[in-house]
Amino acid sequence: MTSTPPRDRAALRRTESLVDGEFVLTAGDFQKISAIIHAHAGIALAETKAALVYSRLARRLRLLGLESFQDYCALISGAEGLDERQAMLTALTTNVTRFFREPHHFDHLRDRVMPRLAETARRGGRVRLWSAACSSGQEPYSMAVTVLAALPEATELDVKILATDIDPRILEEAREGAYSDDAIEPVPPALRGTWFRRTAMGVQRPWRVSDEVRSLVAFRELNLIGDWPMQGRFDVILCRNVVIYFDEPTQEQVWSRFIPKMNPGGTLCIGHSERVAGPAAARLVSAGLTTYVLGGGG
User: Fold this and answer.
1) How do strand 178-179 and strand 207-209 relate by DSSP bridges?
2) Domains of the chain, with CATH numbers?
3) Which residues are catalytic?
4) How confident is the model over 77-129, as pLDDT tens digits?
5) What's the pTM?
């Protein structure tokens, strides 16, 4: 029995590539990448995403000086591949966000939730909100501005917003709280004038969130399919446009995990393409467009 010469094996792999390009990406390579990203972050990648995976990760191969996706798979599969698995996650996820995105959620927070929470805080009670996939910070800062508009003394009371994301690099950007003119555009002029400052940081990101707004928000790294170390419960949770990237069982698991983290009557806002499913659907009552309230037995 004769073995296939190395040159012929390389040619065979190229004919098996899912994408035409500089590097070979076989179905086996794709399956390994898909399995690792699913185990690491819960993200489900169908083979129809092969071109996207190739285009995003080919840059990593060039940067690392690798010759093939086979080599890349060996790297991310190894014990020393943690940093590159994180870099792969950053490359494959899209941090699409903006201030007051899906504004009906912030209208609901301002008009229907904050009057009650403001009373709680003024009586000395604890008020907690969570942005569960905060990306570069526009969502939690929008929450903070909404809170301050309803409760100007919030920074002097027991009011806090937890902002979490799986990507430590995007969290550093979020903590800085600096944004471009285009990023600030969705902020209503009255709120912009009150809660944002134009700085001398340069033309790229000349706007900075005020210290008062930033003081309400604590940024932490957290994987939605990993451990949730928070001890207390939340009055408001925004988890929007991230669970859609999970497969159905993982989605249902995440929805169910929110239940014990919510105060009775607490509010959950999800993305426009998402729907609560599984056991959590029996506990979360619709309170508006992609907005839910935790029912009895919280």
Assistant:
1) antiparallel
2) 6-92 (1.10.155.10), 103-294 (3.40.50.150)
3) 56, 165
4) 988 888 899 889 888 887 779 999 999 999 999 999 999 999 999 999 999 99
5) 0.86
